[in-house]
Amino acid sequence: MFNVLRFYLAAVRWKLRAILWVTKELLLVRVTNYSLFKALYKVKGLADGGYYHNIKLSDRYSTDSIGGVKHNRPSNAPGYFDVLWDCILKGLGRDLVGLQVVDIGSAEGYFSFAAAKLGGWVTAIQPPHYFVGRFAALSEYFGLSDRVEMITGYYPAVGRSAVLKADIVLCLGLIYHLDNLIDG
Amino acid sequence: MDESRCSVQRPLCVIEGMFFEDACYSAPIEDGRVYARGFDPERHSNGGSICYRWLFDHLSSHGFEVFWLLDWERFVRREGNLKSTGTRKALIAVPRM
Hints:
Chain A has 184 residues and is α/β, with parallel strands linked by helices. Chain A has helices at residues 2-45, 63-67, 80-92, 110-117, 130-141, 160-165, and strands at 100-104, 121-126, 148-152, 168-172. Chain A is built from 6 helices and 4 strands. The longest helix of chain A has 44 residues, at 2-45. In chain A, 32% of the residues are buried. Chain B is 23% helix and 29% strand. Chain B has a 5-stranded mixed β-sheet with strand order 2-3-1-5-4.
């Protein structure tokens, strides 16, 4: 009788544990999917003209798959911007923790977010454009709003003080957009 | 021009873009002379590309040591990795102490 009772209690305990585990998993999945859904919705809503940067949003989704590709992107090769970032990191030869990074002409912010994820404090400088709204939505999605800021305007008219305080200045796909290469 | 690692000093600059080689720059790039005297759009730019020797010279004469990222050049040269036939390069310019 005692053994039967003990077996019954153990079964109830395991059942409760199973229910708790399933509930937790379901909640986790629901929360994750909700934030992903919100991000995808925003990304799609800001997609007019297509995305310049292919930014990974989850294992399945990227800005390319949701918002399309901007026509003047230099390449549609998969991982194009990832390769450039890897080459830059290899060239720098150290991590970015605590460094001030300025990203001039950030577009949607692939490199700003990549630097912030590695511990950098990033100031992006970008002329008024639909990139600005996308940058804000993506920084919120990645939870990097406290590590990245955007200055809206044309460098060097804006952002010069940020550049003077920076450890690293990124000018990627930028120089052919400058009116004055010497001042820039 | 060589690909090597550099340590971060403040501030360093990472530049990537479209480049070409200006035919006027016939001298060896390592000869120590300064060729970049101002920017001449006729000579130093070509449909959005910038003469990479001019940029190297300009940065060198303004106290930067220039490291070209050759892995990036190798990647963009591979067929299918660029939509256009232009040349893209990337460099890290480190201020000399």
